[in-house]
Amino acid sequence: MVELAVGWLASHLWSHGQAEPREPAVEEQLRGLAGLVRAKLEDEPALASLEREAAGSPTPTAGTRRRVVQALEDAVWTDPHFGEALAAVVERLRPVMARPAD
Questions:
Q1: From which domain of life does this come (predicted)?
Q2: Does the structure show a pLDDT above 80 at 21?
Q3: Burial zone of 8 (CB within 10 Å; 0-12 exposed, 13-18 middle, 19+ buried)
Q4: Half-sphere exposure of 65 (CA within 13 A, CB side)
Q5: Is 25 exposed, middle or buried (0-12, 13-18, 19+ CB in 10 A)?
Protein backbone atom coordinates (compact mmCIF):
# COMPACT_ATOMS: atom_id res chain seq x y z
CA MET A 1 0.00 0.00 0.00
CA VAL A 2 2.73 2.47 0.96
CA GLU A 3 4.71 1.78 -2.21
CA LEU A 4 1.65 2.54 -4.33
CA ALA A 5 1.02 5.75 -2.43
CA VAL A 6 4.61 6.95 -2.96
CA GLY A 7 4.53 6.10 -6.67
CA TRP A 8 1.23 7.88 -7.19
CA LEU A 9 2.39 10.85 -5.14
CA ALA A 10 5.53 11.18 -7.29
CA SER A 11 3.43 10.92 -10.45
CA HIS A 12 1.02 13.56 -9.14
CA LEU A 13 3.81 15.95 -8.21
CA TRP A 14 5.41 15.54 -11.64
CA SER A 15 2.15 15.91 -13.55
CA HIS A 16 1.62 19.50 -12.38
CA GLY A 17 2.35 21.57 -15.44
CA GLN A 18 2.19 18.62 -17.83
CA ALA A 19 -0.05 18.77 -20.89
CA GLU A 20 -2.46 15.92 -20.07
CA PRO A 21 -4.73 16.67 -17.11
CA ARG A 22 -6.29 13.77 -15.28
CA GLU A 23 -9.98 13.25 -14.75
CA PRO A 24 -11.14 15.77 -12.11
CA ALA A 25 -12.27 13.11 -9.63
CA VAL A 26 -8.91 11.32 -9.89
CA GLU A 27 -7.01 14.60 -9.57
CA GLU A 28 -9.02 15.41 -6.44
CA GLN A 29 -8.07 12.07 -4.87
CA LEU A 30 -4.40 12.61 -5.76
CA ARG A 31 -4.50 16.08 -4.18
CA GLY A 32 -6.00 14.43 -1.10
CA LEU A 33 -3.18 11.88 -1.04
CA ALA A 34 -0.58 14.63 -1.41
CA GLY A 35 -2.18 16.70 1.34
CA LEU A 36 -2.40 13.75 3.71
CA VAL A 37 1.24 12.80 3.17
CA ARG A 38 2.49 16.39 3.39
CA ALA A 39 0.61 16.97 6.62
CA LYS A 40 2.13 13.89 8.21
CA LEU A 41 5.67 14.20 6.80
CA GLU A 42 5.92 18.00 6.71
CA ASP A 43 9.43 18.08 8.21
CA GLU A 44 10.70 14.91 6.51
CA PRO A 45 13.76 15.56 4.31
CA ALA A 46 12.89 12.58 2.10
CA LEU A 47 9.58 14.19 1.14
CA ALA A 48 11.37 17.43 0.25
CA SER A 49 13.74 15.39 -1.94
CA LEU A 50 10.81 13.67 -3.63
CA GLU A 51 9.19 17.02 -4.36
CA ARG A 52 12.44 18.40 -5.85
CA GLU A 53 13.00 15.31 -7.99
CA ALA A 54 9.38 15.28 -9.17
CA ALA A 55 9.88 18.72 -10.67
CA GLY A 56 11.99 17.10 -13.39
CA SER A 57 10.94 13.47 -13.64
CA PRO A 58 7.91 11.27 -12.93
CA THR A 59 10.17 8.66 -11.36
CA PRO A 60 12.12 9.50 -8.19
CA THR A 61 15.52 7.99 -7.57
CA ALA A 62 15.49 4.61 -5.86
CA GLY A 63 17.10 6.07 -2.74
CA THR A 64 14.52 8.83 -2.38
CA ARG A 65 11.70 6.42 -3.02
CA ARG A 66 13.00 4.04 -0.31
CA ARG A 67 13.37 6.89 2.18
CA VAL A 68 9.83 8.15 1.59
CA VAL A 69 8.42 4.62 1.77
CA GLN A 70 10.25 4.08 5.07
CA ALA A 71 9.01 7.40 6.47
CA LEU A 72 5.43 6.53 5.52
CA GLU A 73 5.72 3.01 6.93
CA ASP A 74 6.99 4.50 10.19
CA ALA A 75 4.09 6.96 10.22
CA VAL A 76 1.56 4.18 9.60
CA TRP A 77 3.14 2.11 12.38
CA THR A 78 3.07 4.93 14.94
CA ASP A 79 -0.26 6.50 13.95
CA PRO A 80 -3.02 3.98 13.20
CA HIS A 81 -5.47 6.76 12.27
CA PHE A 82 -3.07 8.03 9.63
CA GLY A 83 -2.62 4.46 8.40
CA GLU A 84 -6.38 4.05 8.04
CA ALA A 85 -6.67 7.34 6.16
CA LEU A 86 -3.81 6.43 3.84
CA ALA A 87 -5.28 2.99 3.19
CA ALA A 88 -8.67 4.54 2.36
CA VAL A 89 -7.13 6.92 -0.20
CA VAL A 90 -5.11 4.12 -1.79
CA GLU A 91 -8.21 1.92 -2.06
CA ARG A 92 -10.15 4.74 -3.74
CA LEU A 93 -7.32 5.29 -6.23
CA ARG A 94 -6.48 1.65 -6.92
CA PRO A 95 -9.21 1.08 -9.55
CA VAL A 96 -8.40 4.24 -11.53
CA MET A 97 -4.60 4.46 -11.32
CA ALA A 98 -1.95 2.40 -13.04
CA ARG A 99 0.61 0.71 -10.85
CA PRO A 100 3.57 3.12 -10.67
CA ALA A 101 6.90 2.14 -12.21
CA ASP A 102 9.51 0.87 -9.76
A1: Bacteria
A2: no
A3: buried
A4: 20
A5: exposed
